[in-house]
Fold these 4 entries.
Entry 1:
Amino acid sequence: MKTYIATFFTHFGALTLSKKCKATGIKSQLMPVPRKLSSSCGTCVKFEAENFDVVFHSDVEEELENCYEMLGADQFKALINNK
Amino acid sequence: MKNFIVKNYKYFLAGIIIGLVALALTLMGNPQNMGFCIACFLRDIAGSTGMHSAAIVQYFRPEIVGIVLGAFVISVIRKDFKPTGGSAPVTRFVLGVAVMVGALIFLGCPLRMVLRIGGGDMNAVIGLLGFIAGIGVGAIFLNKGFTLKRSYDLPLLEGAIAPASSAFLFILFLAAPFLFVFSESGPGSMHAPIWAALIGGLIVGIVGQRLRVCFVGGIRDSIMFRQFQMIYPFIMVIVTMIIGNLINGTFNFGFENQPVAHTDWLWNFLGLFIVGWGSTFLGGCPFRQLVLAGSGNSDSTITVIGMIVGAAMAHNFGLASSAAGVTTNGMIAGGICIAVILIIGLLNRKKVA
């Protein structure tokens, strides 16, 4: 099991993923984006899964900015970049 | 405990720095409890450039230029500078107008609210309650699917215009001051020396950009995520101001005779209620909008322009309060602002899947 952080262009995107996680029983948490990942002050979703893309469907993808694997407390590896 | 300090000392330090700069600027000439006020200073700039003719609030405030340029320089150095925009710009403009009208009914932006509390002004505590209530209502809308839609990457120039035009106006202010209008009495005539104001703005802009200081964000994150980190700068500004004002003999506890303030509790509450709610939709307080404008965010630049226009309207139409109290026009405008923000909130909801 790995820990991921998905960042979004909008709070709405994060909310959508968070609801989706809850519906499918994936452990997740809405929280402010870590400073290291962004200078903007949006909302992200931290979640635990075997594979990060299991939770992404079209509604989420539209708003998704990036997804990071958490390697340590303040260490992240970017997996996609949906600019 | 040690962990807590290691993790959060920067946020405490940020509040202390902002508080010290505000104290210094007040000692050097800015109005009392107004070391910084984004709303008041944008309003003074609007007056100085002839957009309104309220004679006592016209001055080109270098603090504003400093904040934008400080955020710009540090975001370029730290590779945070990112030209983005396109998230409902006209709606943001309108929210900027509403936030400014609310701030001028209260007489201060959230940053000045904090400075006023630190000066013992209890009217600002009433304002704080309204501010928290506004953010709370905004948070409910956010959780019900409110969105102004995403922003997009934009050309470099789009992000560079805000810092470039701030710098240009500042140079114009130095080189051709006769183009500007300056108050001869009242708050607009009270100001720190130009270079001190600019440097103060630069410092606060840099700190604001590095730590994402936002007076809405701290309360919003506390309400929505039980995350309190962003509220530490907020608290430390108050603590620093209380200590500084006590040392300086300018701590004046109570409701009456507060500098540039009125005692109408309902409109102190509602003024900042408007600011809190509107700023939550915008994603940041007026100070944060300036910092983001300096970091390439053109949505924030549009918001700042909305705030400047809102300030001009507030004085041209007699909406802004004064020490004498709230105006009838101000109350009507406050009601309209609440209605407008509500409509924006209701019409920008998407169904959360």
Entry 2:
Amino acid sequence: MGILEIKNVNKRFGGLQALGDVNLSVAENTVHAIIGPNGAGKSTLLNVLVGKLIPDTGSVMFDGQSVLGRKPYEINQMGISRVFQTPEIFGDLTVLENMMIPIFAKRDGAFRMRAIGAAASEREVIEQAELMLESLNLADARHDHSAAMSRGNKRRLEIGMCLAQEPRLLLLDEPTAGMARADTNNTIDLLKQIKDERDITIAIIEHDMHVVFSLAERITVLAQGSPLVEDTPDKIKGHPKVREAYLGESA
Amino acid sequence: MDAILLQILNGLDKGSAYALIALGLTLIFGTLGVVNFAHGALFMLGAFCAVTLNRLLSLGFVPEDASATSVGGFSFGAAKETPYVEHWFGESVGAAIIDWSVPLSILFAIPVMIGIGVIMERGLIKHFYKRPHADQILVTFGLAIVLQEIIKFYYGANPIPTPAPEAFRGSFDFGALVGFDPNTIIYPYWRLVYFAFAALIIGGVFAFLQFTTFGMVVRAGMADRETVGLLGINIDRRFTIMFGIAAAVAGLAGVMYTPINSPNYHMGMDFLVLSFVVVVVGGMGSLPGAVLAGFLLGILESFASMAAVLETLPGINQIVIYLVAIIILLTRPRGLMGRKGVMEE
Amino acid sequence: MLGLTKKDFALLLVVTALALFAPFILNPFPEGSGMAQFNAGYPDLMQRFAIFGIFAIGFNILFGLTGYLSFGHAAFLGVGSYAAIWMMKLLTDNILPAMLLSVVIAGLFSLVVGYISLRRSGIYFAILTLAFAQMSYALAYSVLTPITGGETGLQLKLNDPRILDAALAPGERANANLFGLDMTASHELYFGAWQFTFNAGYYIAAACLILAFYLSIRIFRSPFGMMLRAIKSNNTRMTYTGLNARPYALAAFVISGMYAGLAGGLMVAMDTQVGPERMFWTASGEVVLMTILGGAGTLIGPVLGSGVIKYMENIISKINGSILHEWFSWMPDGLEDALVTLIYPFVGKGWHLTLGIVFMLVVIFLPGGLVEGGQRIGRMFRRNGGASRAAKDIAEQRNPAE
């Protein structure tokens, strides 16, 4: 029994079968990559997992509880955090404030009025946030506007913000898309470090095979809305079906 | 039955005005992605085009041969001015031209309003495409204040009566025409003219968008601004022209509305708020939605003004449009005919 | 001090000092001099400074922090005013219950409006609030005439019940008071040719302003305030950080509605009357304007913005043709006439034209308002280290040791 169990999930958009009978199990404390050519349904699947889309049929269970019909913030509070393709951070806030918000969310839940005490006197929250920033090598920038950071640092901050919530499942949507090689390698190193240091399950959607094979312990190949193969990276590498899906009929 | 028809007819003129303003708002929002709070001011400027032309045409001079009317040293008629147009074209033609000043203003208003629209877009709106919607709302709100204050300075605060041509003043028995009892449905001529005019303009705009290449590009732009932006070709200029057209549509709506309601400087603001509600009810970004909602809400308002309705729900005519808008936005946030994904969270 | 950082406390002190010494600061010119027309230290205007300051401070908590642009906040001010006048008619002339009720009623009303309007965002939200406000205006103007007095509005009358108050002696008028302190009571201080007026009503309003300002600092610096800024900055990240943005925005909406209600209650406390025009949407536009002009999202901005607009309104609308001629009389005749003709449309009744132009200029060139303008000028003077200054400011206000 995996921490995430997707069973018989179907989703249609008009005439297009975006997801067809998806069955997928993600085991706890593994790094599971979902790959596939464009239009294979990776993003649709991700949006189902975070509550942005509701599938037509099927079930999605996280740690024994259904996520279907729950709002994105509720699913997040269950322990699923999401990293976006383009980093989504609070650009108008300082780096430290960015890091404080998920810690507040973890401590106070989805809504709590704390309108009178000063944020600056929340020592515990600030300490936790600074600790996290140090581990990300972002401590020097903590009073900078986060919008002014480099793309690579924004990515680090976003991943850090997700980790600050201590999620059980971390979803990554093409975390290195549009990045320079150096930034990509930094991100891979960061994710490896996270994997080694924490009890955390990571599901990653990725185009870049270098990233996938550096990180993944299991890989599911999605094609035309359905899982084609699921196996270890070594087996996937030489799999004829995978080559066919990626290179087309001619292969 | 005849009472219902009467209310529908009564709702048509306001509905037409809502539909025309909402059409322009939607065109601008759909193509340029800009929320134009100054659109009501364009309607008002159109109305004042009619006022201006009327004044220009009525400009006169005291004839040289005024002595003909003077008796015993007192010149009774001396103060009477003769309009230049009567002098140039003869008395009867000249008088007819003045009498027809409102319809003639259409010819005057089209170039003026397109000009104002283009200047507005190039001079101001263009710089706000990439700014947040709040900034667009605020800057056009400021512009609306400026425009209406300029008009107030030159034309004063009081409404200026601008009559329809003699031939269209008064009312006729519409009921008798369509087979009801005589004298049950008396309808002013000009309102019918206004409705026909609005229908013509709306038809014209739709035909333009449907059957010309220009229109095709604009429609494609409304469907997916980013993709059309990628095509690149002259899209900026097309949008400028589109803004000019939207300004002209609002202006013409204003020109023809002057005989129904004497124009004043704040008429634009009054119509703007309701026109926004119309756009939202119709569905942000949907042209047919804007037209449909305009007429529906105009007619609804007219029904709510019936004596029988007001007896049970006093004052409902004042708020019915807002109520409907709130209910629609909550139950069907996309509006009547709005497409998915336009201005949604 | 008072739970504030040094910097914020200094800001509070500045506002407090400005409010307390306003009768001096605003009357710099001796009576009877040519410049006396630029004095603003008379009770009526000073009260409006304070009241609109409160209104704008509240609006800023919504718009400045969350970015939700409400075009209907005048409705809450109006509702507060109606609640206050009824309290003064039915219960007592004492303004305290009236102001309390106006805050409560405006809070409840904004809860309803906010609950519905916040289901949409962006333009839809602006239009929804606008529709609600216009509907309230229409209701107050017509349907609810028995409650609102329709077009003429409501005033205190001799035959109001006022069940807590003793009957009026013959010839006595009902006066708004705070435990017997008459709002219209003034003390005049003469200092040579200068005259300063200390008005009870103004000081009540000023006390409310200081309190309102203090509360807004606390809200700005609180975790709640941080959440509100997060909504404005990135709603998607907010949601995917497990936070439900809507109750946060609603709380901000209600708080700003209560501020508006307080302002409305104070208005009634000062002039004991109310009319529906107070709720018209141009009145909602005005508070947007004040906030933007001063600097949305800054603490001091709304206070500055409302002060500047109310001062300009008062002074500029007083200038007329003959005053202009007087000013430029030292010029050659032709030039004088030309200048007067040029300036005339912008003064007197043309005040709104000036207002509209100023507003456009601010939105176009200075979206951060006067505060940003001041910062830009400040930066010009101390170029070196300018970039790290902003970061240092934040570092200072964050420092919990203070």
Entry 3:
Amino acid sequence: MKRVSIQPQDFDIAAELAALEALGGGGVASFTGVVRGEGGLIALELEHYPAMTQAQVDRIVEDALGRWPLLGVSVIHRFGRLEPGARIVFVGTASRHRTAALESCAFLIDWLKSHAPFWKKEHFGDGATAWVEARAEDDAKAKGWGG
Amino acid sequence: MAEPTLTIVYFAWVREDVGRDEERIDRPSSDITVADLVAALAARGGGYAQALGDATKLRAALDQRFVPLETVIGEARELALFPPVTGG
């Protein structure tokens, strides 16, 4: 099972996990990214490159499927204006082996951070805005997986 | 035969500084690199200079694939210019 969705709306984590569990592998790992409301932040605006995003995330998922014996992968990434507490991203993996499920889940979120065409803009309560800068450590984490 | 024009799309603060999200330009000669074109666009001044003046802050994609700035544009139809990505 391979599911990639780039969407503005929220998603149902229980349903996503249930779909992965139903594959019968016995091991499901997941990561959920949520908007942090620190420093007076009132919203995070996610911009993306619509013509590229789906294909690029598909490539990242294919890469994970080539590296680990997975029965299923789900990636959901939202775009648009998201408030603190809102879910941004979900990665779920299913495998017969817990190591494969856990490692591929970590790989997928690391690669999404540095290889998917999204940009975050922070909006603060006082009207200020700031584009989030890419962090060298995120890039290093992605490089750590090789390839 | 290559298209007579090249579409350039901009994202995030590059889009904001340039002041538009997309434009079409006459196709540059086939041996021009992304970096060459970025320098030519920055020479327009104003928001272009602000957005594109420091190429080390930029990343690029040709026909929806990430490429290094030294890549020759060749017959690509779409060039995207943007800051390093911050998804996830």
Entry 4:
Amino acid sequence: MCGAKAGGPDLAGVDVANETIIQGSVTRDGEPVNGYVRLLDAGGEFTAEVPTSATGQFRFFAAPGSWTVRALVPGATVDRKVVASQGALTEVPIAV
Amino acid sequence: MSRSDVLVDADWVQAHLDDPKVVVVEVDEDTSAYDKNHIKNAVRIDWKKDLQDPVRRDFVDQAGFEALLSAKGIANDDTVVLYGGNNNWFASYAFWYFKLYGHGDVRLLDGGRKKWELDSRDLVDGSEVPDRAATAYKAQAQNSAIRAFRDDVVAAIGNKNLVDVRSPDEFSGRLLAPAHLPQEQSQRPGHVPSARNIPWSKNANDDGTFKSDDELRALYAQEGVDLAQDTIAYCRIGERSALTWFVLHELLGQQNVKNYDGSWTEYGSLVGVPIEIGA
């Protein structure tokens, strides 16, 4: 697969109203990057980590509040602070 | 026993890729990751399909483990090196499981798949599968000294070390599962009363490698865990706590540590047991 897709993965089958979703994609010069994305809580503690998909996408099911999304890719680490709420999609595009 | 007996780095694995007595085994939370690519000559063990009884909630029995390892071409005197994604969660679980059935020489690849990938080391295509001749593997009876059951946990409340290795939000009851999974779960949120919350991630660096023995010892001392006392580690399904078990039992050499594989999906569903919520 090639080419980055904007936004998070497909939401088919996901109970969006009852989940607190943080999702997005990791790109370098518009191309998807294979790597890992880690979710840290308001205290900076690890909460979850996922590999990016072939199209650079990732998704977390969190709780309402403040989070840090950290992309770990070969040669770079990038943090993004977000505030998530239930029933809403928090989209986090990360360019490295 | 020393750290190098149970933990190897990527250079060591690279140097032993073609050693027939070293079997590299991928055990991943995402059991399809192997199909995409894997370390050369690695075989796959599927933690769901291969390691769990297909009907009851329990492990495959001794004969089942023997059949599995025989079919994978793993002999009793082989050195088994486990690695996987998600910071070796399921590779640690498999390590504990191999020890449960008494395998002699089993080690973890420090940092697992993530460190290997972040270092841009070679992976072969998923279709390239090694051809290992079947063996006649003999397992030992389960070693009950390293596995805790629900009654052990209830009995430990207030008088043994209970280490809850989940994230602070799972410990407090704010989340029911690690945040890469949907949060709809049947069990009650919270933790076992008197458990200390020492997330598994405090054992590891961002790249998934383990911290030094001195740092690890300092971590448990700071958190007020007296390792001279018996310890039970748990998480949600026993894989992250297997990583903490590996740290305490294998790296720090504490023999009185058990992993509770029933973990929160069992405890949080029990009728009548005490639960605490909040930090």
